[in-house]
From TrEMBL:
Catalytic activity: oxaloacetate + acetyl-CoA + H2O = citrate + CoA + H(+)
Lineage: Bacteria, Pseudomonadati, Pseudomonadota, Gammaproteobacteria, Moraxellales
Protein name: Citrate synthase
Lineage top rank: taxon: Bacteria
PANTHER family reported for this sequence: CITRATE SYNTHASE
Stored Gene3D superfamilies: 2.20.28.60, Citrate Synthase, domain 1 (1.10.580.10), Cytochrome P450-Terp, domain 2 (1.10.230.10)
Keywords annotated in UniProt: Transferase, Tricarboxylic acid cycle
Amino acid sequence: MSDATGKKAVLQLDGKEIELPIYSGTLGPDVIDVKDVLAAGHFTFDPGFMATAACESKITFIDGNKGILLHRGYPIDQLATKADYLETCYLLLNGELPTAEQKVEFDAKVRNHTMVHDQVSRFYNGFRRDAHPMAIMVGVVGALSAFYHNSLDIENVDHREITAVRLIAKVPTLAAWSYKYTVGQPFMYPRNDLSYAENFLYMMFATPADRDYKVNPILAKAMDRIFTLHADHEQNASTSTVRLAGSTGANPYACIAAGISALWGPAHGGANEAVLKMLDEIGTVENVAEFMEKVKTKEVKLMGFGHRVYKNFDPRAKVMKETCDEVLSALGINDPQLALAMELERIALSDEYFIKRNLYPNVDFYSGIILKAIGIPTEMFTVIFALARTVGWISHWLEMHSGPYKIGRPRQLYTGEVQRDIAGR
Ligand code: CMC
């Protein structure tokens, strides 16, 4: 726990004064330690955790008003432009960017674990071909729990470390297979001569018939950047889910499967898929004005806009927009749906309704557009988010397990029936 500042908050409760210690982090608002409220017979009430810090962490810092996102102190735009995804993974896991030697060693370690146990491939057959790939991911990532009995001691530092590497290495394989299965194509095994992003695109799009399949380097760079920009995001819903599941001592693969489930929802990781569905529904640029009216009367939400934390701009969206422009011009894409997306962006950035509410395009607005341009099917968008976020989840899980922690157990404001007796029996 951070040092108390010496400052105290004083709470008046039932005629008594309770002094609550205040702690300072290195950045961000001070926090009030409310534990003593319990001894005074009260709970605190904060649905949606709007003002509640549930843990102490050194991994990621966000200042939503200023649009700042730092991983281990480094701004996200610098990481996205000056480091690659695996370096960002190393940073999140270890606290520092790797030296050249550490980078080679870490890359090799990840490459060494890209294969999954052959038995895992059989799980896919249990799914319908039209299963949503996120449903498959929840199942197969959770199933990894059953394959590493000898390295699942969560008290053992080496076991925790190898688990982190295994997850970062294997999730792309499982993700690409969740796509291959739904389109009925054979699974492509990982190629360890390729970079992390290239290998993922290879497993997605190559087939055994196309021996000369080459990954487009512009797309690999964009993919790597999408991974980097989604790598971690502090105590969001899915990361908090991983921490909560992990706080029970559950095995890490099960915890990550819980994170994948939480990410799936359209208010979180499902937003990039929802953006494309929304564009489908709008149809053509002529229908935009009518759609925007529905947004203003709150009949529909503008997916890919707004954020719980970023109330001015999403710093990830800034870099993602640059990548989006790069990819679209490099591929010479002239897709009416993309023109539609650009029109939505233009209106939202200039219309008083959106300006007043600070509703800016978020990272998922642009990542959805890039992924579509790359040729990734819409159902895979959230899977790609999950792939990239796996490192964030496991970094938080590791941080929690490297110090003392308590089982997460929120309390409630009960508003149901008071005690009563079953009558007439
Ligand atoms: N479209 C239209 N209006 C919106 C939207 C939106 N996407 N988001 C917020 N608003 C309005 C909302 O109705 C409210 O208006 P009023 O003041 O008139 O009542 C005002 O803006 C403030 O919104 P809020 O509901 O207090 O915002 P929140 O912090 O609770 O919600 C959010 C954040 C991300 C759930 C929401 O903005 C949303 O549903 N956005 C669309 C989904 C999306 O793109 N999510 C991805 C977030 S980025 C990826 C990630 O980090 O997970």
